[in-house]
Amino acid sequence: MLAERLTAQLLAGPPARDPVEVAHRLLAVQAQDARGARLAVRARSAGLCAADVDRALSEERSLVITWLNRGTLHLVTREDYPWLHALTTPPQFTSTMRRLSQEGVSPDAAERGVAVVRAALGDQGPLTREQLGVQIAAAGVPTEGQALIQVLALTCLRGLAVRGPVVETGHAYVLVRDWLGEPPGVDRERALAELARRYLAGHGPADDRDLAKWAGLPLREVRAGLKAIAPELADREDGLSALKGRADAAELPGPKLLGAFEPVLLGWRSREPVLGSFARRVTVGGMFRPFALVAGRAAATWRMPAGQVVLEPFEPLLARDEALLESDAADVVRFLDR
User: Fold this and answer.
1) pTM exceeding 0.85
2) How far apart, in whole angstroms, are the C-alpha atoms of residue 326 and residue 314?
3) pLDDT in tens, 109-156
4) What residues pair up with 25 in beta bridges, in sequence order?
């Protein structure tokens, strides 16, 4: 099962050709950590660099970042944005309004903030969070703490804006209609079927509860999606779902470094197949640290003080694995520097 999932995730087998192929396969790449999202692309491709991801965001407009599954920022293709947004954002409005209230932003103030963002982006084009924050504050809307980000999240949940072009080291916000064009209408039943199909392409084998957790949707909805694609599913003795005709599981990948909030830890209910007994070394207080994968399992965490990779193994590594991780560390530096 682990080999099958790593193959579906593009961590084993042939690498992707470009960032769009990675996002298409995984459907949505966790992206609240900008470097982590870029490193997720690196781990699933060959010969690319961080600038290729930025180019897809800024020049090609083939990728965007916005709040989707579970109310979390994700990197998605422009083609998948409309239906995935329509499908996964409705359950998030209640929690977003609650967070705004906790940050001292009343419903009226939240509406003013959304109106300011919409007008500013329409008149002035791409703007950074800081630039929008100045204008939102000038309208008397609180921006301290998490208030600003929650106002921006509400604007994006409404389908008005997304994070588009990279400006210096961050993402600027843009109006969806200006950046991507008017979104098409979405048939929810068809979208649920596409969600099930695409989730299994990048995460299978899995079950309905895995999909519900990943997408942040009720079980009844994901089960409806899986039922709609039942003729496309393979027969399995383990009770998990997988698509017919998928590529055979590749051999477990060689040692490689994975970034923060790595998708292979966020696609299913259980992280045990990858983390084993080291879960508390990788997941700390809601954060997902960068880690090293050896024989398909977490073997170390790593960090980059002064721009160089420092490995922190859980147990002594074999010499050949350590050498391969050192080589991959050099590629991380190359990827991020170019």
Assistant:
1) yes
2) 16
3) 999 999 999 999 999 989 999 999 999 999 999 999 999 999 999 999
4) none
